[in-house]
Amino acid sequence: MPLVLGIDTSCDDTGVGIVRADVVLANVVDSQTALHAEFGGVVPEQASREHLAVIDATVQTALERAGAELGDLEGVAATHGPGLVGALLVGLSYGKALAWGLGVPFVPVHHLAGHIAAASSEPPFLALIASGGHTALFDVDDGGGISELGRSRDDAAGEAFDKVARLLGLGYPGGAALSKLAEQGDDHGVQLPWPMQGSNGLEFSFSGLKTAVALLLQRQPEVSEADVAATFERIAIGSLVEVTERALRATGRSKLVVAGGVAANRRLREAFAGSDVEVLFPPPALATDNGAMIALAGAQVLAGARQGAKVLAGAQQGSGFKAEARTANTDPSLTVDASPYLPLARPAS
Ligand code: KG4
Ligand code: ZN
Fold first, then answer.
1. How much of the chain, in percent, has pLDDT values that exceed 70?
2. What is the pLDDT of residues 83-111, one digit of tens each?
3. Helix (H, G, I), strand (E, B), or coil: what is residue 15?
4. How many domains does the chain fold into?
5. Same domain for 83 and 159?
6. Domain range holding 188?
7. DSSP label of 126
8. For all residues of the chain together, what is the average pLDDT?
9. Residue 38 to residues 12, 15, 35, 60, 90, Cα–Cα distance (Å)
10. S-S: 233 plus which of 182, 204, 266, 342, CB 3.0-4.6 Å?
11. Which of 161, 164, 181, 289 to mutate to test the pocket of ligand 1 (most atoms within 8 A of CB)?
12. Residues 13 and 112 in one domain
């Protein structure tokens, strides 16, 4: 089983992990949260510069924790998208150069395929990824092929939590603080709209809900902030659960993986308790952005290449998420298709 190092620099955390098959040997995350907090959100150029400053040391720390040396690595994986372009380029270029230098295969990994791999769960299953950057539902079939069922047409769930938390003066990122405040409020204390009402689809939407909170606070500045937090949380999480349950019914899947920062939410964790669905939450360190999940996805690809099995992880370049099964390019040259995965990337020829 190959020893694989994985890198994620898609947003504001420099994540480096080392795995052997599905065993995580090291998972080091250098978080930039404090750096961006004063701006109330991630500043892309700052993020890229910080990745560049710390990536080498983060790789060294991961190697030490795994008790490994560079020469022991048998594969390198890095997120090639989606994410902030400058930030992605740091980890992607570092990963490609490392693989080339060591003469081992390089595996470009789709960030969301990484989140799904973090669950280390046997397919088939449904996956709900809800973070500050993404909210989407995926079906993972018997053979491990991933297809997207639906995503948010506007804000990600965590982004909506952060924006509402900001309106309530709770700082950034404010999802956890908002959830804490909600515990003291009445979750029917104010009137807010239910997203995508009347829809039978598998899409999410959170910006209308967020705007409704902003308008409410403008019109009624004396309103109970705890009631606003509680009502917002009931509706935002309720909407995530509603669409996910619809997808479970539509696909007949009985297993659900929930990942991303919002998976820490108490209401979301309790929502499926008592249902027939087996719900899996990756351990917190693997549920939020990290390098180990990218290494896990990379190891799956490399194992597939060696065993000839159909595996997932990685995605075809282009717009939208087309995570078709692909095998690793075991040629350690730089010709591997590892361009950043961006809407503006040249179309695959
Ligand atoms: O996956 P993640 O760590 O990384 C990024 O997306 O960058 O997700 C972070 C998101 C933030 O928006 C944060 O506010 C949200 O997860 N979050 C929560 C909770 N804890 C973190 N949202 C709701 N309830 C929580 N308890
Ligand atoms: Zn993520």
1. 87
2. 899 999 999 999 999 999 999 999 999 99
3. strand
4. 2
5. no
6. 125-281
7. E
8. 87
9. 14, 22, 7, 29, 23
10. 182
11. 161
12. yes
